Amino acid sequence: MPNPVFLSGDRIDLRPIEEGDLEFLQRHVNDPRIWRAIGRSKPLNRVQERAFFDDVVCDDESIQLLIVAESTPVGTIGLHSIDWPSSRAELGYWIAPDHQQCGYGSEAAARIVAYAFDQLGLHRIAARVFAFNDPSRRLLESVGFVQEGVHRDVEFIDGEYQDAYWYGLLEDEWRSETA
């Protein structure tokens, strides 16, 4: 039986992450093309991935979804650091290397942004991207995010400090772009 879809798109669906997805998540989060881009410098074993599932995915303070294309998992996307009183959250995502440059990330980001503003009533969404990750910067900009600032030397990745660009999107900006 297929897993339930939470948000549907034209080419992708977003569904809840289930225990059966842990192998996919662990395999890809340990791929240097992924862990480097998300600023993670230590490997995750099965127990740690399970702890992520229990502590983050199953937590009510974040929304973590699996990106699925034609019933194949291709990545994850989520809203975390949700601050309900201030109506803001941070967007995070990654796409498995074999599925990058297919537009799945852009479509998933557009779907979750619409959900965040239309259903959750959020006012602001932020996202962080490392300076070396041009495809992710283009993805955010294609959805309407605006670069707001730089945190210099914020993470130590691959033997050197990396800058992180902070992006933001306000609900009224998004609504004016989608009107």
Blueprint (SSEs and pairs):
Elements: E1 7-8, E2 13-16, H1 22-29, H2 32-35, H3 46-57, E3 63-69, E4 72-83, E5 88-95, H4 104-118, E6 124-130, H5 134-143, E7 146-157, E8 160-170, H6 171-178
Parallel strand pairs: 5-6
Antiparallel strand pairs: 1-2, 2-3, 3-4, 4-5, 6-8, 7-8
Helix pairs in contact: 1-3, 4-5
User: From the alpha-carbon coordinates, what is the Rg to the nearest angstrom?
Assistant: 16 Å
Number of helices: 6
The stretches of 5 or more residues where confidence is low (pLDDT under 50) are none
In whole angstroms, how far apart are the ends? 38 Å
Concise description?
The protein is an alpha+beta fold and 179 residues long. The chain has helices spanning 22-29, 32-35, 46-57, 104-118, 134-143, 171-178; strands spanning 7-8, 13-16, 63-69, 72-83, 88-95, 124-130, 146-157, 160-170.
Describe the structure.
One of its GO terms (cellular component) is cytoplasm. One of its GO terms (molecular function) is protein N-terminal-serine acetyltransferase activity. This protein is α+β, with helices and mostly antiparallel strands and 179 residues long. It has a single domain (7-178), classed as Aminopeptidase (3-Layer(aba) Sandwich), CATH 3.40.630. It has six helices and eight strands; from the N terminus they run ββαααβββαβαββα. The protein has helices spanning 22-29, 32-35, 46-57, 104-118, 134-143, 171-178, and strands spanning 7-8, 13-16, 63-69, 72-83, 88-95, 124-130, 146-157, 160-170. It has an eight-stranded mixed beta sheet with strand order 1-2-3-4-5-6-8-7. Strand 4 (72-83) and strand 5 form a beta hairpin. The N and C termini lie far apart (38 Å). The mean pLDDT is 89.
